[in-house]
Specification:
The chain has about 160 residues and is of the alpha/beta class. The protein folds into 2 domains: about 70 residues, Transcription elongation factor, GreA/GreB, N-terminal domain (Helix Hairpins), CATH 1.10.287; about 60 residues, Chitinase A, domain 3. It is built from 3 helices and 7 strands, in the order E-H-H-E-E-E-E-H-E-E. Strands 5-4-3-7-6 form a 5-stranded mixed β-sheet. The longest helix is centred in the N-terminal third of the chain and has 31 residues.
Length: about 160
């Protein structure tokens, strides 16, 4: 089975590489030290500190495996050309909600980098998928859990 391609911006790739490096060098060492100290307390069968440290160690090792897998399958989004006319991965767009007359800015990124709280939406999300390929001035509808939202694409950056 082919592994899923992970789409990232250059900044997103750098963040994942830094997280992986930190987990491998700093966090592994910290947790190993916590486990060692917990063992020194004696009977580990009822030692909550030992149990907690082992759980954290398992989480860290799982995250390392996940990050390594993502980095093996990464595709970096190249810089967006100035004057681009269609929305692609990496585009920052200004959308106007035609029902509420509100404007919102989104950057379209891969799922691994999505952070809706920072207006970075996935190309796989309803709005992200619906906007791809559109041009400035286009009006389009997006099916979301709450119903249908009608947007106009005001600007592509």
């Amino acid at each position: 089975m082919k592994e899923k391609e992970v789409v990232l911006t250059k900044e997103g790739l750098l963040k994942l590489e830094q997280e992986l490096e930190s987990l491998k060098t700093v966090r592994r060492r910290e947790v190993a030290e916590r486990i060692k100290q917990a063992i020194e307390f004696g009977d580990i069968s009822e030692n909550s500190e030992y149990e907690d440290a082992k759980n954290e160690q398992a989480f860290i090792e799982g995250r390392i495996l996940t990050l390594e897998k993502m980095l093996r399958n990464v595709k970096v989004i190249e810089n967006i050309e100035e004057g681009q006319t269609q929305v692609t991965l990496g585009s920052t767009v200004l959308l106007k909600d035609l029902e509420y007359n509100e404007t919102i800015e989104y950057t379209i990124v891969g799922a691994a980098e999505a952070n809706p709280m920072n207006n970075r939406i996935s190309n796989e999300s309803p709005v992200g998928a619906a906007i791809l390929g559109h041009k400035k001035g286009d009006v389009f509808e997006v099916q979301v859990p709450a119903g249908v939202i009608k947007y106009q694409l005001e600007e592509i950056r």
